[in-house]
Amino acid sequence: MTPRARLLAAIQRQPTDRLPVQVRGVRVLDDAWVTTRHPSYAPVIEAVRELGDPVANWSPSTPLLLTAHPMGAPEVRTEPGTDAWDLRVAMLHTPRGDLTSVHHVSRRGLPGMTTRFYVQSLDQLAWIRDVPYAPLRPNVDGFFALQEAVGERGLVLISLPVAVGVVQALLGTEGFALAMMDAPDQVLELLWTFQARIEDLVRYLLERGVGPLFGDVGAEYAGPPVMSPRFFRALYVEPEARTAALLHAHGALLHVHCHGSVRQMLPDFAGIGVDVLHPLEEPPLGDTPLAVAKEMLRGRVCIEGNVQIGDVYTMEPAEFEATVRWTVETGAPGGGFILCPTASPYTPELPPNAVANYLTLLRVGVEYRYA
Q: Are strands 213-217 and 253-258 parallel, antiparallel or unpaired?
């Protein structure tokens, strides 16, 4: 099987010739990424090209408010902050007034932080709804060019916005949680406004032959410990089920990325119609033993995971190989499993230990044979 065929078969819980190994974040199908990596990445890039089942990402152009109206995207400027930080100030213009977000950007490559989100009071939720809507009709030529370039060497994943993610971007995690306590109906009205726009975008993409694998990120904004299970179903399960049904009606597939403690949400993911779920983390970073997840999702959802990225960087090679072998022996039987780290490599230079462990991940995965 080719890498593309192997991944598609696993995602659909069908037999594969061997275990698929997707090394998340090692973007061997992206020439610009490859040519800008530190030389320490070279052995891993070469091994993924030879042994891996890579995924390339394509995203349609989607302004923050999911409308093609000029007010749908913020006006952004950069201002000096301190010696170490710049301020990225983004302003949404609405019919009732301007809404401002401030994000601190490090000059030393450190993670940034948003210190002000657009919506500062509940009445401003209506300001967002008042922004005129014009359907999104992004150019899809880039998708077909990428798909042709990738061919059978891998699979293209189309990144979709998710309604709960847009709401979180407007309110911030804390503001979002508080708004759901104080004015859930207003929040849900806004969320379903965005969901309708997403469904329109998905129809447009499907009608133009874009596919078959679509994915989104954002379920973790709606789940415990930030939100209650009841809110998770209202904020994510119900709208996401509509997206999944739309995709499946056109023969497309849904990939969902959700970190954290998801054990109690696994029936929801299966009920939505999620085809592949990443990364399904074991304790202590998650709460879902792989054996339990396999039993709960068998035949319904493909698991992509669940080797911790921290273990890739820090675990001694012998212990890491034992961990990967246990993961494969637990996850692979019965199919519907893609061996994959829980996150992308996050350092400009790969330490020797990480290089050795990435190579072990690929070797152990490829050597596995189904019973």
A: parallel
